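Workshop exercise sheet. Pairs work together: one partner reads the sequence aloud, the other fills in the structure field after running the prediction. Swap roles for the next sheet.
Pair: D.N. / O.F.
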Amino acid sequence: GQQASVFIRGAESDQTLVLWNGIPLNDPYFGGYNWAFLPTEGVERVEVVGGPFSALYGSAAAGGVIQLITGNEPGVWIGIEAGENAHRRLSTSLTHHLERTKVDFHGHWSEGDGNYPNDFYDSLEIAGNVDFGITDAVQLGVRGRVNDSSTGVPFDGARASLERRIDWRESQVALPLQANLESWDIEGYVERTDYDNHFGDPQDPFGFTEGRTESIAHRGRLNTTYRPGSGLWIGGGVEVENLEVTDRSSFGANLDGVDQETLALFSQVHFSLGSLSADLGVRYDDNDVFGSATSPRLGLVFAATDSIRFRGSYGEGFRAPSLGELFFPFSGNADLQPERSEGYELGIAWQHSAWSLDLVTFETRYSNLIDYDFATGRNLNVGRAQTRGSEFEARYRTDRWDARAQWTHLDAVSLDSGEALKRRPDDSGSVGITFRPGRWSLNLTSRYNGDRSDVDPVTFATATNSSYVRHDLAGRWQASPRWAPYLRILNATDEEYAEALGFPAPGRTLTGGVQLSF
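Structure field:
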């Protein structure tokens, strides 16, 4: 319920593309996504790609892609929970199949006061999918989602802010098409996304009491895949996008319906030959403001044995300058070019019986980064950065046990100053253990974040944010096929830490509830 960011392999948060059932969620105003409002009900799986992937997804995929896919087994469940800090939440999910028609409905209502004054979070969300089977091979659908949330901002640097808040309205509607015609697969959609972001603080010492941003995104995408034989498929498609932003503050209008349009063509080829598989993709984006961008990608996988696989990839990506960076008064620069990325990864994976190990090394270089230049008072393409590191994961899975350990070593630096990029720890890791004896499910999750460079909220000087270890506990009892009570203890050891300096994390928090299934 509070401001959150994602740094995939050290990339900036606005260099990560976020998708919900194929629909981009990034805000056109300044390009990022506020993870405070992430939709989670009905999520069947989360797909994560690290490194440049603009060959398939275009802008904002310079550092990685995260996609949420909804859809459950047929049935209905309702979750009711409450906890400390006046937390209350009602969640529901419904999935029903009728011959060729599938209906998914998900939603929640949630509210809580948080750990500090003006740390509240209120949220209401409704999302649904309806897929109509025109024939056995052709489906048409409707996707929709509405989120209405408000969150308090308890701190402004080191100063308590008792009335600062953000009100967020977001809606998406899409019409997807899918057809599977022998050797041909056709997929596409048209969609519209609306954002309404209102910021207010009557006690702001600088007099900036409120601001409102309204953004609209129209998109259409169509791609076809041809499968001429075993081990080979060829895909390609077209995507169009129009983004528009209006922004006003206490001082008047900043942006009034500014927009940009993009037309993209993309293609990808996959083939398998014995133990070797390869993917080659390329995408061309043409934008009416910044011009064009071409993004290639190559991936290889070699199965050395039944248990061991080697893989490698090279890709390029870009992030288009946002409408705020282009046209915001005084700092905007209509001559900005896209941020660029170029990266590779090498990995080895081993799997045998209940065990699996995965080791990856990676490096990504970023250029043309958009930074505010204090000498000219404008945004300029002057930044360069490099992230490199390795990721290790070990996992053990049986009917009763699911254990996973993960470790990341990251070296993320600015190539201009030589300084470490802010809020990226050199080392981080986690351990998750789930044990399911009979009707019980018990879970322990421990996370470690190492020391990391940050900004002091009072002096604005570079400072070190200390490492921390956090432990979360959860338990669930399937009392009957219809109902299951559960309990969560977040930050069980009451660790005092701040993920970002000036934003202290919640202490020990107890939450309990029950899930009803039908």
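Discussion prompt: The first strand starts at residue 16 and ends at 20. What would you look at next?
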